[in-house]
Amino acid sequence: MYADENVIKIKHEVLYEVAKLAFAGTLDQEKEHIAGKLVPGPKPQFRCCIYKEREIIRQRVRLAEGKAPGPVDDGNIIQVISSACEDCPISSYVVTDNCQNCIGKACINACKFGAISIGEKRSHIDASKCKECGKCASACPYHAIAGLKRPCKYNCPVNAITYDENGISVIDEKKCIRCGLCIHKCPFGAIGSKTFIVDVIEAIKSDKPVYAILAPATEGQFGQDITMESWKKAAKLVGFDDLIEAGLGGDMTTQAEGDEWYEAYQKGEKKTTSCCPGFVNMIKNHYPELLDKVSTAVSPMCAVSRMIKAKQPNAVTVFIGPCIAKKSEAKDHNIEGNVDYALTYSEVRAIMKAKGVELLPADNNYQESSTYGKRFGNSGGVTAAVLEYMKEKDYDCDPKVCKANGAAECKKALLMLKAGKLTEDFIEGMACVGGCVGGPSAFKDQMLSKKDRDALIEQADARTIVGNLGQYDMNKFSMHRVEHGEEAGNLAE
To answer: Is there a single domain that holds both residue 119 and residue 163?
Structure first.
């Protein structure tokens, strides 16, 4: 699922160097030296020459600053590192050694674009003329033509990736759902996301209160010894004023969504969840006619941010989790009171390393959410929470929910809803298989972390959703993105 270890190593080294210089206040003066420090030469480490390697580092530094790697910025969180993408094969179809240079020339006859010619020992495909129809591969009796599928393009769930005349991948930001799957599928590390580590560090250095909001998917990612309390202590050592588990926001979203679902159920209306930004981006970019079906409830991340800012309006809020799309929710969706920045685990660990802070074992004694809020990051977790809330409220409601696990199932469910053929009452959409625990920037594979995750959550008390929320003044802030009647227009912006 994840990128090659060498790719991850390079990424982490760049993030650390940028974070270290940002804390020192010398980033602008010294960032040009990062490439030379990480690639001293004279021998290359991972590309053909040290000059290309240094250019890749330079472009990664720009990403770490929250900028586009090249001169043009289309605004997308997901960006192609062109200097790294250059080594990917340009041709989608290539002639292999199996070619017998036969007389029949079925490949040439099958091609309608004149892309195939006779070579000295085997046929040749002109990449500039090839339309990737695949008819030549199908026609060859020796199966001598292989179809090469670029990992980024092949794994994109919404066909947002093509490539230009030079073979450089191009991401259509109007199609991209910011899921980040392409980032960790590229073996060249040629796709990355903008980071906000510099902005977060500057906020920490300022006089403003800065709060970390930790994703429910975090529990179990770093072993049974690394608890929410471990993260809280580390965050304070880094300079955050406090850390709050986003599972509390899960309980808050459950209440808002449960009430909304119950009302819709009584009216015979269908709704979708709104907590997964990748799923919301899919609706926004590919099924805009369904925007009015999206729940108006804000995500758990936003709920906690609003709670904090209701008490301290000048507070800076930072989400930490395995999700790339959360960056787009923070920046693209223009939701009032949402987090100011979103960081992945690798980004926050770079900040911690720059401050000499480590995650250390701690007692599992910090709990701010129900176990249902804690499992919000699992596929089916939102549904389980909402149904539990309805039970606690004695709602006369027995809804059927389509739990769409991963982008492919999300597309299928939305197509059924669009066609008016969805048999279920509601859709829970999770763009990542497994839910947030299967996010593209997860520290550990979800199956490897499941045992530790279950063990940590089982140690939590059995507080109810309604009982837990009774400890908070929910009237101090809104749990909806906009007022009734304005939602579809807001999401479409």
So the answer is: no
Q: What is the pLDDT along the chain (493 residues), one digit of tens a residue?
A: 444 567 788 899 999 999 999 999 999 999 999 999 999 989 988 888 999 999 999 999 999 999 999 998 999 999 999 999 987 766 688 899 999 999 989 999 999 999 999 988 899 998 888 888 999 999 999 999 998 888 898 899 999 998 887 888 999 999 999 999 999 888 888 999 999 999 999 999 999 999 999 999 999 999 999 999 999 999 999 999 999 999 999 999 999 999 999 999 999 999 999 999 999 999 999 999 999 999 999 999 999 999 999 999 999 999 999 999 999 999 876 799 999 999 999 999 999 999 999 999 999 999 999 999 999 999 999 999 999 999 999 999 999 999 999 999 999 999 999 999 999 999 999 999 999 999 999 998 888 899 999 999 999 999 999 999 999 999 999 999 874 344 444 554 5
**Domain shared by 234 and 342, yes or no:** yes
CATH code of the domain covering residue 53: 3.30.70.20
Q: Which residue range(s) make up the domain with 169?
A: 5-87+151-195
Q: How many CA atoms lie within 13 A of 151 on its CB side?
A: 18
Say whether both 436 and 368 belong to one domain: yes
Domain count, the chain: 3
The reply to whether 263 and 318 lie within a common domain is: yes
Please tell me the number of Cα atoms within 13 Å of 201 on its side-chain side: 29
3-state class of 342 per DSSP? strand
Residue 440 has what DSSP assignment? Answer: T
Both 73 and 188 in a single domain?
yes
Instruction: Supply the pTM of this predicted model.
Output: 0.90
Secondary structure letter of residue 293 according to DSSP: G
Calpha distance 83→70 (Å, rounded) = 9
Cβ(260)–Cβ(399) below 8 Å: no
In this structure, are 118 and 59 located in the same domain?
no
